[in-house]
Design goal:
Strand content: 15-25%
CATH class of the largest domain: Alpha Beta
Oligomer: single chain
Low-confidence stretches: none
Number of strands: 13
Structural class: alpha/beta
Mean pLDDT: 95
Number of helices: 14
């Protein structure tokens, strides 16, 4: 960890400002696995003339988000892309969801990312997402939960989207080292909140009480129980502007990714669709140096095990690429925060394909963007935490180290 802190401090010391523009396009869960029956991955199957053109002008490679064999969540995956070692800087999903919806977290607040779920008469989970309940219906149920009270603790419950909501606890003696209550699969009951440290025992007890009262409040509904993940407090992280002299803008439609961006000091655009994102990039081009654009459908289709739908999502993203590149950014990187193969229906440990394009790139002679091609690319295989430094270097935003 000390070594990684030294690396980040060195990049901050070498960082300089100029007029270059950098674009990071993150196709969430981009990486895939080819089916055993033959054929390529989702990315290799998709028709992607614009990504292929970018590959021909750039350099390909594969990125490891955390470490070989480690499956990352979206938080660690993005922190790596933003230049942090995910094993050094740990941010819970609850904090990210809360920041993403604009909740003003106080330093002592404990936040959790929550799902409305469905349980049967015996309390076993039959659907972790309550059938992806519509947002309007879910918001009405979340209002009931916001009315719950627990002695000695302020309880804030805010709807996010569909089945997702945020729980924030405020009070004395609350720490955040508490395990998830979501078992991550159907067929078993929600887990009890387990404190990993003595200091977090009160928080675990409060969470269990909230879950019990939530089930009572939701009785008779399809979404009749809650699951909690990512119990956490907000860490201190240096901002992009202070560390790298970058005026940064995030364009993400999902709150959690806006929260990640806010955590590292990015401004956040108010966007709800890809069309909004494209328009906001054009409107903001002269005001920012670094643009982080997040695309979700590649992940959600992979999690739903819909191979063809993920192929279509990649093709839709490819179709939007010319508009994103209309301002002619000096450095472009297209990658994912992790892999979500539709073969598995979940995040995985597989390295992520990456294409990095800039005038100063050493082109590797590969003109197709896919996992097989990235295995042979000039970037080789690197850790995600090094991507930002490479982008800064290609933008001539890093000075020389040493005499």
């Amino acid at each position: 960890m000390a070594m990684d802190t030294a690396r980040r401090e060195l990049i901050q010391e070498l960082a300089v400002a100029n007029e270059s523009k950098l674009l990071l396009l993150v196709a969430d869960g981009l990486g895939g696995v080819a089916p055993m029956t033959g054929g390529g991955t989702e990315l290799e199957t998709a028709e992607t003339p614009n990504l292929d053109d970018l590959a021909a002008r750039g350099t390909l490679g594969l990125m490891t988000p955390v470490a070989p064999g480690i499956t990352p969540g979206s938080g660690p995956g993005h922190l790596g892309l933003f230049g942090f070692d995910p094993m050094d800087v740990v941010v819970g999903r609850g904090v990210l969801e809360a920041l993403g919806i604009g909740f003003a977290l106080e330093p002592s607040d404990v936040a959790a990312r929550c799902n409305l779920c469905t349980v049967d008469e015996e309390g076993r989970i039959t659907d972790r997402r309550a059938g992806r309940i519509a947002s309007d219906d879910a918001e009405k149920l979340v209002r009931r939960l916001d009315e719950l009270s627990i002695d000695g603790v302020e309880v804030f419950v805010e709807h996010v989207r569909e089945h997702r909501f945020v729980l924030v606890l405020r009070g004395e003696g609350l720490e955040a080292d508490v395990a998830d209550t979501d078992p991550q699969h159907e067929g078993s009951a929600p887990l009890a909140a387990v404190a990993r440290t003595d200091a977090s025992r009160r928080t675990a007890a409060v969470i269990d009480e909230f879950a019990r009262k939530a089930r009572e409040a939701l009785e008779g509904e399809v979404a009749n129980m809650v699951l909690l993940r990512g119990v956490s407090k907000r860490p201190e992280i240096p901002s992009f502007r202070d560390a790298y002299h970058l005026r940064s803008l995030a364009l993400a439609t999902y709150p959690m990714y806006r929260g990640l961006a806010q955590l590292v000091g990015m401004d956040v655009a108010d966007v709800a669709t890809m069309e909004d994102q494209l328009a906001a990039v054009g409107e903001s081009w002269s005001s920012y140096d670094f643009f982080f654009v997040h695309y979700k459908p590649t992940d959600s289709t992979g999690e739903d095990k819909r191979f063809d739908a993920k192929v279509r999502a990649i093709e839709e993203l490819d179709g939007a690429l010319p508009a994103l590149l209309a301002g002619a950014p000096d450095v472009v990187a297209v990658t994912g925060d992790h892999s979500t193969p539709s073969l598995l229906g979940s995040h995985s440990w597989h390295p992520i394909p990456i294409v990095l394009a800039a005038e100063s790139c050493r082109r590797d002679g590969i003109a197709t963007f896919g996992e097989s091609q990235c295995c042979r690319g000039g970037l080789g295989q690197l850790e995600s935490k090094h991507l930002l430094a490479l982008m800064l270097a290609h933008a001539h935003r890093l000075g020389k180290f040493g005499a």
